[in-house]
Structures are given as C-alpha cells and as structure tokens.
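Much of what follows relies on a compact textual record of a protein's fold. The record below shows the convention in full:
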Amino acid sequence: MRNKNGTNVTQGLPLVSIITPSFNQAPFIAATIDSVLAQDYSNLEYIVVDGGSTDGSIEIIKSYADKLACWVSEKDKGQTDAINKGFARANGQILAWLNSDDTYEPGAISAGVAFLMKNPDVGLVYGDCNFIDENGQKFGKFNAAQTDFKKLQQGYVHIPQQASFWRADLWKEVAPLDDSFYFAMDYDLWVRLARITEVKYLPGRNWANFRLHNDAKSIAADDRCWPEMMRVHYRDGGSFFSVMNAKYIIRKMIAPWWNWRRRRKMEKSRKSIRE
C-alpha cells in the first residue's frame, strides 16, 4: 500500500523507480530484468522502454509483463529519449536507470535507498561497478571515485551510471536529459545534479555490472563520448585552456590503445571460460 507521495505505508520505504531503455538487446535483457526483479527491495516500480526491437526482445519483455509496472515498445529518438519517456511515467521518490545489457548486484537498491534516507543532504549516491563480458564474467572495475561539481567540470567523472541512485525532486529541477546526446547524457546529468546537491561515493559497495561487448556503445562509439562532454564543458563557460580539454586531447591520442586494451581484456575473459 502506498500513500499519495509514493511512500510504502506499511514499511515506510520510499518508492524507487528503475527505468530500462532497450533496443535489440535480446541476448542480455533477460539478465538485466532478472537482476532488478531479484532485488530485496519491496517498494519498487520497474519500467521498460523499448525502441521497437526486431530481434526477439519484445517477446522476452512480454514474458515479464506481469512483474513490470509498465512497458512499451515503440520507435523513439534513441536511448536518451527512451530514458526520458520512462522517467516521465515514473512515480518514485528515488530514481535510477539500468541499461538493457547491464545488471544489478544483489542488495544494490536497498543499500542505495538506506544511505539516502540516512543522509538527506545527499542527492546522488553511487557505489562500485564491475566490468563484465557478454557471458557475465567479471574482468575489471569501473574507476569510481569521489567527485563533485568542480571536479566534474574538469572531466573527473568517476560516477558509474549503473550504480547510481538519486532523488526524484532533484531530477524534476534539472530534467529532462538532453536527447541530442548519444553518449554523455549521464555526464550532463551528473553536472546538473552536482551543481545543486552533494554527490557521494561509497567505496567497496559493488552495486552493479557494466557489460562491455563488441556492440556496446562504450566500445563501438567511444569516439563520440568526449566531444559530447566538451559540449557540456563549453556550455557551462569552460575554457579551451582547461584541465578538461587537456584530458580530451590526451584521450583522443590514446583512444585506439584504450579500446584495444578493453577488447584484449574481454578476449582473455572469453578464453578463460573456454578453458
């Protein structure tokens, strides 16, 4: 039972809304959905927004229909648009999104909510995040670290989107996501949230898994990330002669090696499974 503010009257737990945007992720979406539904948090609203998949994803989503708050499959303008659609339907006091190839670790939502309830001055909390391959094997960690508004402006992001939870009232102040971003919509959101609230990193709390595979944006379209981040930088008055731009130049130079290194780690993970 919930009151009009989305609070579970019986347990006193705030309603949490999780959005999963999806498009043609049939090999992975069941694992994503299962990881949300297996959470030990009872006051949960789970919304799946599919972009009109043609690979069997819709049939998979339909098989979970009775466990979802709602789901839709229709043509959209991309991932960012799908996330905005989901949050427009959300009623929760705490929000997050989990992409359709990523997964939560057990207890992630409960831990994130507990921290936010005990720390009302914190608007965004995040934990650690593993890298996993297409088989779900862990092969590394996201370089999560404490950051803040000034550091974010300099390109020190360090916030794994998969392991992040934030307050809905703050979302309403900065929403929606800019759907002109293909890659850096989360960075843009972190900057806007950090401008108005404290963000907090909880080290040693493994809350999620970030799946890297050959079709993942972080591999296939990595060259689009930093140019979009620079758009945020210059929009907020950033200078060409800045730490952020220096990092961008260095990243452009090492990008081929960086992606080769990630693919090598993924291949090593696959080989270890075969052996």
About this structure: The longest helix spans residues 243-274. The radius of gyration is 18 Å.
